Amino acid sequence: MPVTEIGSSERLLAELRHWVEHETPSTDPRAVNGLLDRAEAELRAVGAAIERLPGRDGFGDTLIARTPGEGAPVVVAGHLDTVWDHGTLAGPMPFRVEGERAHGPGIYDMKAGSFFAFHAVREILRQGTKTRRPITLLLTPDEEVGSPTSRAPIEAAARGACAVLIPEPAGGPQGACVTGRKGTGGFTLTVEGRSAHAGGNWSEGRSAVVALSRAILTLHALTDLGRGVTTNVAPIWGGTRPNVIPPEAGCRIDFRAPTLEEAERVIAAIRALAGEEDGIRIRVEGGLNRPPLEESPANLALYGTARAIAGRIGYDLPRQTRGGGSDGNFTAALGVPTLDGLGCTGAGAHAPEEHIRWPDLAPRCAVLCELLETLG
């Protein structure tokens, strides 16, 4: 058990409820900053050194809180933004507790885990717990849209850190943490053709929709489940009227790959679709957003430490790899030992049934807290 007293699951749920009932869609910087204000005030009150980076490009601020100490820090990072729009609480997803499940928008991905990180750091400072290394806590505003403004401060904090902990949701019914994640990326493919009357001048046209359809089949064929590579095309668009040969079309492309080598292979294949032939011009823009979080001896050693702590607390902590990315992808790519998926058990991320198993709040938070106390 950690030296720091973190309280009961009931106590944690009562405070977490306020975080969930403060809606924070990624696209509303004022809403995200409102929750950051609350976290900042409480961290300041217990002596954290605060740095707040102003938001830009339509996103909220990034909060960085540091505890005293010497040496390479332990970094813990969580995001406050969610995929849910304002009004979700008043409509289809009110906060509610049903048995061992607590429901609400963003409660699983990832307000419970971000609250863990905040709560553990706050209580370490409030109670004066001595830690082996200083702690750097980041609370960020834009992970759900690719971390366009928070990636740089996350990477800056991770450089020189002894370890990075990411309290994204635990996976599966056993609450597995994450030792590997696929790299993620995206492209926009646009096609320019030539319009013509679909009846009288058909041969003079060049259908952008037909060219797009051929490209989509090529993109779909890049999926190789045996190699862990997936592609997906959506949304698609094109054309104006049934009697006009469509002069323009396009699509968005998502891809996932388990290693940098596989990611580079897929990227090259997608970019090879660009070019001009027979009156059709294809443009491709985009690339890799999050590099793969590949399993490494350092990551697995960090997992072994966490699993041993969980065992002393009274539960097993399995591990898994996932297809979705997180901010841990960035830090692992820097060569910093990174352990992900340290948040709460539950299910339904980004779905109406999103929930956590609230009795697991205290034991899951205890593992994160003891890691913060003892790593180094």
Summarize the structure.
It comes from Roseicella aquatilis. This protein has 376 residues and is α+β, with helices and mostly antiparallel strands.
Describe this structure in words.
Helix 3 (107-127) packs across helix 9 (361-374). The chain has two domains: 9-181 and 292-374, Aminopeptidase; 183-290, Alpha-Beta Plaits (2-Layer Sandwich). The chain is built from nine helices and 17 strands. The chain is α+β, with helices and mostly antiparallel strands and 376 residues long. It is 32% helix and 24% strand. A hairpin with an 8-residue loop joins strand 1 (49-53) and strand 2. The strands form four sheets. It has a six-stranded mixed β-sheet, with helices on both faces. A five-stranded antiparallel β-sheet has the order 10-11-9-13-12, with helices on one face.
Strand content: 15-25%
* CATH T-level fold name of the largest domain: Aminopeptidase
Shape: elongated
The CATH homologous superfamily of the largest domain is named: Zn peptidases
Mean pLDDT: 97
Q: What's the β-strand tally?
A: 17
| H-E order | HHEEEEEHEHEEEHEEHEEHEHEEEH
Cα-atom radius of gyration: 23 Å
Question: How can the largest sheet be summarized?
Answer: 6 strands, mixed
Number of separate helices: 9
- Specify the helix fraction band: 25-40%
Query: For this structure, what is the CATH class of the largest domain?
Result: Alpha Beta
